[in-house]
Structure formats: structure tokens, C-alpha cells
Amino acid sequence: MFDSSIGGQHNLCAGPPRGWQTQSINAGGSMASKSGDETGAWMTAAPGQPLTPGRATLKALGPMDVELEVIACGLCHSDLHLVNDDWGISEYPLVPGHEVVGRIVAAGKEVSDLAVGQRVGVGWLCGACLDCRSCNAGEDNLCGEPNRTCVANVGGFASRIRVDSRFSHPIPRGLGDLQAAPLLCAGVTVYSPLKRLLPRAGRDVGVVGIGGLGHLAVQYASRMGHRVTAIVRGPGREKDARNLGAQFYLDNTDGGQTAAAEAAFDLLLVTVSADLDWSVYMRLLKPNGTLCLVGMPAATITVETDNFVGEQKILTGSSIGSREMTRETLDYSAANEVYPWVVQMPMDQVNEALKILADGEARYRIVLTA
Length: 370
Known about the structure:
- By secondary structure, the protein is α/β, with parallel strands linked by helices.
- It folds into two domains: 9-185 and 321-369, Quinone Oxidoreductase, Chain A, domain 1 (Alpha-Beta Complex); 187-317, NAD(P)-binding Rossmann-like Domain (Rossmann fold, 3-Layer(aba) Sandwich), CATH 3.40.50.
- It is 23% helix and 26% strand.
- It has helices at 77-84, 133-136, 177-180, 186-197, 214-223, 238-244, 255-260, 278-283, 306-309, 323-336, 350-358, and strands at residues 9-11, 23-24, 38-43, 52-57, 65-74, 100-107, 119-122, 125-127, 147-148, 160-164, 169-170, 204-208, 227-232, 248-251, 265-270, 285-293, 314-317, 342-346, 365-369.
- Strands 1, 5, 6, 7, 10, 11, 18 and 19 form an eight-stranded mixed beta sheet that branches.
- The longest helix has 14 residues, at 323-336.
- It is globular and about 60 Å long.
């Protein structure tokens, strides 16, 4: 449906976004409201309902907070899950959006390392306790008290948001707004485990799934000097996978190809949320190999214990990335020309964009612009 090119920005929908005047809803929960604290936003009032334009109440600007005028916001499968309350954590009215690029228009009195007018990005987390064991170890993405950008907060499908400045990441000059937005969630989600689990170049990496996450994972793994195989259902994405940097392509519906790849990989990075035959994928690993999940399958994963005892294989997962890793992802992407393949759509077509995403037709990341 969509034509894509590396780093391309495809504006498939013309025309300015429509206004925000349809309804007025307080999306700020118990947050204090005062004159001037409202913003236009696209929101949903109940699970599974379409988003409609209205007014959302921003939280008060704290001493370490910044207010951003939203320029662009990537569309992630997590937004779809939140709209439908698939994870049971959504709070309505809900303003989704957590791949946000914006410009600072106001800053709290204690903000010292960012300035009004600066371009920054915000990902899945807009805050954490910063005092627990994980936070003190530099792993704020594992904090037990996370402050999620679009759960109980006004997310990036708004004209303005307010977030902790310490979770606002400067955008390198080498990245455009549309290029930077998907890196704030999709990018760091795959960059982080590749960096953490493969400290040396020259390893054999299989990326399972070529979508919003997988198309970036192939680029990162290739740029890091690994031998990359794209593992995809069917032959339809082979051309894209090779253009992204994959040296090899495995159609996992072909039993012969799968059997030939047994004991071939040091790392399998699973970017899909499908319930796969995990025993088959564990057999694709070399001894001491690692299968890492960044997608979230719904069903329980069952594998034979001999994978762990007899061959010392590892089954693990990775949760987005820390603040430090997010900034490293942005810098690495700019320096090494890792760009998402982007379909640009105006914010007032957010419902159409959600349907394209749900139908699996995005190639490969939709970015909404005001």
C-alpha cells in the first residue's frame, strides 16, 4: 500500500489539521487545573472508542518540568494497546502518544540544562522516582514507580505536553523531526538490547519481524558490524530487509530454510508480539546464544529445559531503555544514519492511522504531525 525508501518521509494526506473544539474533557485526572493550563488533544473516553478532538488539562508546571509544543509524534502499537486497554493500565479520558518531538516553550525554575526554544524528545517514560535501586544504577527504565508519558498524563497526541525535563532528550541536529520521533521508543527498544547483549562486533544476529521495531533493529545490528538475518513470515519483505542492511533472509514459513538455520545465531531479537513455536526458535540459537523478547506475546512461553542446562542458552527480555541509552540511541542514529522509514500523516487523521497500524499496513512507522 505504501512506497518506502530509507529515511524517507511520505506525506500521504494533504490539508491542515482540523480544530480541537468538539468537546471538553479533563484528561489530567486529579491534577490541578487553572486558566491557561488546557491544551488541544485527540483523546478517547472509553476502551476501543475512536479518538475525538477536545481539551485536556495539563498538570501544573513543576520546578523540574518543561512544557513542549508538540511538532511530531510517532504512532506505536503500544498506543493501540492503550486505546483498547489491552494491558489494564489505561486511564480515561486517554490522550495517547509517546514518541514525541517538540520545542520547549516554558521551563520550571530549577531546569538548568535545557532552554526555551530547544528541540527535545520524550519517549515512553516522562519520569521515575530517581531514588530506587534501579534508578540509582542508571536503569530508570526499570523503576518500580514509572511515570508513563500517556498513562495518567496528557500524551503526545496533544498540541502541548508537560514532562520532567530529566526525561526530555535533546534531538541531534542530524535528525529531522519525523526521523527522531520513532527513535524515542521503537529505536531505543531495539538499540538497547543489541548494545547490552552484544559487546563485540561480528556476531550472527537474527531479527524476527520486519515492522516498526524490526526495520530499525536490522539497521542498528548491521551498522554495529554484525551479520544480520531478517526472519519474516513469507517472502514479501525480502527486498526491504536487504535494503535495510540484512545480509540474509529467512522465510519462517519454509520448513527447509528454518531447519537449515539451526544453531546459526548468537542472538535472536524478537520484535513481534505473536505467539510463536518457541522450541523452534531456541533451536536456531548456538550454544550460549540468547533469545531476547522486545515484543510481548500474550501466551505463556514454554521451552525444553535442555536449552538452558545442556546448551546454556538464555531466554530474556528488554524493556525500552534508560535515559542514558535513549540519548545514546539518538546520537548513534544521527552519526550512523539510522533512519526510520516514515509515513507522515496529519494528526486529524489519527483514527485512520490507528486502523492502518492495526491492519499491519504501515511501512514502517507512522508519524503524526500537527
